[in-house]
From TrEMBL:
Keyword Transit peptide: no
InterPro entries to which the protein is assigned, alphabetical: 4-OT-like_dom, Tautomerase/MIF_sf
Protein name listed in UniProt: 4-oxalocrotonate tautomerase-like domain-containing protein
Organism phylogeny: Bacteria, Pseudomonadati, Pseudomonadota, Gammaproteobacteria, Lysobacterales
Entry keyword Isomerase: yes
TM stretches of this protein: none
Keywords: Isomerase
Length: 47
C-alpha cells in the first residue's frame, strides 16, 4: 500500500484536483501494479 503526497497549487479548481489525483493513481496502478481500489493520497496546497 504505497502512500502518495501531492502538493497542488493554490487556486486549482476541484475538478482539476480530482483529475490530478486520478492521474497519479492510474500511473501507480500501471507502473507498479497497485490494486485499483488501493487509493492512499494526501493532497495539500502548495504556496
Amino acid at each position: 500500500m504505497p502512500f502518495t503526497r501531492v502538493a497542488i497549487p493554490a487556486g486549482t479548481s476541484p475538478a482539476h484536483k480530482a483529475a490530478i489525483a486520478r492521474g497519479v493513481h492510474e500511473a501507480m496502478v500501471a507502473a507498479i501494479g497497485i490494486p485499483e481500489d488501493d487509493f492512499f493520497q494526501l493532497r495539500g496546497t502548495a504556496a
